[in-house]
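Input structure tokens:
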């Protein structure tokens, strides 16, 4: 609730920010900004190996090509041997042809089901977006239900959330392992590994981790209040 109240009026009438065309719009915007500052953005490129010389990172290998770098920033899937599992997250992507019942026909919505209400240790999340964000055809809605797995029946754990959605046209369920770096010694190698995405739908924990990692690497906090010299660049 504190996060919600702090966000109201920050960037408009809504406390929520939704990228048009979905989260895929974020790397697209980053690639343009990367090019402006002299970076190279390689699309559809796999990383086959993180290259080491002694106990220091020197770059990555993709097929027969290598890219040299003094440090590498990645998620756990690129360095599984340097990470430890924390648990699992279940996500159900649901296609609807109606808004979520009892939400006043909201075209986008975030719902959090408290852990105590469900008899769990962790909250369950529902996030729904629609054609207004240009992520699906007009008349359809995409709802994502996510939660931390606590039993041997993960789908049963999110059933109370699925019941709130009404009729579901189609559903795609996945259970993934969430991991974090083994210890701070990994960072001394020049290998900066983020944690896996948790079950939350508002990206608060991911944002806090990015800001913390930026400060550790650069040596100062990221100031998001600095205005660019040329707004057209952004």
């Amino acid at each position: 609730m504190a996060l919600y109240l702090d966000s109201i009026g920050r960037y408009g009438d809504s406390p929520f920010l939704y990228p048009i065309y979905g989260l895929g719009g974020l790397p697209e915007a980053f690639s343009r900004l990367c090019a402006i500052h002299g970076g190279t953005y390689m699309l559809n490129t796999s990383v086959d190996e993180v290259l080491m010389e002694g106990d220091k990172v020197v770059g990555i290998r993709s097929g027969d090509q290598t890219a040299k770098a003094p440090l590498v920033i990645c998620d756990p899937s690129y360095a599984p041997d340097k990470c430890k599992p924390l648990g699992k997250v279940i996500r159900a992507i649901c296609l609807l042809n109606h808004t979520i019942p009892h939400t006043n026909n909201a075209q986008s919505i975030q719902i959090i089901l408290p852990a105590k209400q469900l008899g769990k240790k962790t909250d369950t999340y529902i996030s729904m977006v629609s054609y207004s964000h240009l992520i699906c055809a007009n008349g359809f809605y995409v709802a994502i239900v996510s939660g931390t797995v606590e039993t041997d029946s993960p789908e049963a754990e999110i059933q109370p959330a699925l019941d709130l959605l009404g009729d579901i046209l189609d559903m795609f369920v996945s259970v993934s392992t969430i991991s974090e770096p083994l210890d701070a010694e990994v960072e001394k190698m020049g290998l900066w590994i983020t944690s896996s995405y948790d079950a939350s739908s508002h990206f608060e924990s991911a944002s806090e981790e990015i800001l913390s990692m930026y400060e550790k690497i650069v040596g100062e906090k990221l100031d998001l209040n600095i205005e660019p010299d040329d707004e057209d660049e952004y």
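The beta strands are 49-53, 56-62, 65-68, 72-74, 83-96, 109-113, 124-130, 141-148, 170-181, 191-193. The chain has a mean pLDDT of 91.
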